[in-house]
Amino acid sequence: MDLTHTRRRRLKLLHLFMLLGILLGAAYGTALGIIMGEDFLPHILVHGTLRGAFTGLLVSSAIAYFEIYVVEGANGLRRRPFWQLLAIKEVVYIGAILGGDWLGSTFFGAPGDPGFGFNRITAITFFFSVGFALLINFTMEMSMLLGPGVLGNMLRGRYHRPRLEHRLMVFFDMRGSSAIAEKIGDMAFHSLLNRFFVDLTEPVLAWGGVVHKYVGDEMIVTWPLDGRRNPAGAYAAVREAQQRFAQLSDRYRQDFGVAPDFRAVLHAGPVVAGEMGEVKREIVLLGDTVNTTAKIETVAKTLPNDIIASAEALAAAALPDGMTSQGLGTFPLPGKSTPVVLYSIT
């Protein structure tokens, strides 16, 4: 699988962390210089603003590298229990902030700056880093639990009232999951299914998809048809996922004794998106488009094809170069009066 998109996404995140770190560090350093009694503007700019920017660059770079390559790595900390992950990240964040501050004081400290060690500046920075690390880490982990963009949408109240949106939907369904679970046992199947979803998520995110939810052995992904992203990424993501699982088949067989495969069903149309629930809130998608996609998936299980798209899905997004469609005919759907025209994508 070509990891160009993954590397590009990671580099963008790294650069964003560094830019935010510089800006926040400069603001914090300026405020700290004023609090510490600097009364000469050049001193504030050098010992406050510049020192803060330098510290912010060091801290953000260390934290970004830790998040991208240690927490999210192939065998990273993401596999640990939530409380362990939160505790480790808290320690690393505090260490990075204090270390960056001490290095900043070494290069840009004012005359008489106590520098390394526990002092008044260190105490202020320490309590700031504890609160900052708790807030950022808890927010990040809650965002991971809820899914990309869900926490932000909930905080902004975007889906507090139902909204009508147009989306291209993709249902990824593991083939023969019942037989696999029976063969390897429920505990092993849980581990396999989790890895299956993780390996699917990488190409989905790389091509701009939004993971909506997991339902049993399938993952539901959407591409909003809002003009802000290319919906053809849905087809590219499916193709890339096929390549990824072909490359990982030996590793799956080594670890589980089986190599999972999937079928993908694509359909497009209007959906109603809105918050649902009281004790446990989530953003749900409702409407005929969702129901039709599920029913197409039922029909797809009787067909030998790996990728099946409706006429509506093909109308919503052009196929990427190297992919073609072949008509399969018109199929009636269970419980619906209108049949659908389906295509095989290769």
UniProtKB/TrEMBL annotation:
Pfam families: Guanylate_cyc. The chain crosses the membrane at residues 53-71, 91-110, 116-136. Residues 168-297 form the Guanylate cyclase domain. GO terms for biological process: cyclic nucleotide biosynthetic process; intracellular signal transduction. Keywords: Membrane, Transmembrane, Transmembrane helix. Gene3D superfamilies: Nucleotide cyclase. One of its GO terms (molecular function) is adenylate cyclase activity. InterPro entries: A/G_cyclase, Adenylyl/Guanylyl_Cyclase_3/4, Nucleotide_cyclase. The keyword Nuclease does not apply. The keyword Transmembrane applies. This is Adenylate/guanylate cyclase domain-containing protein.
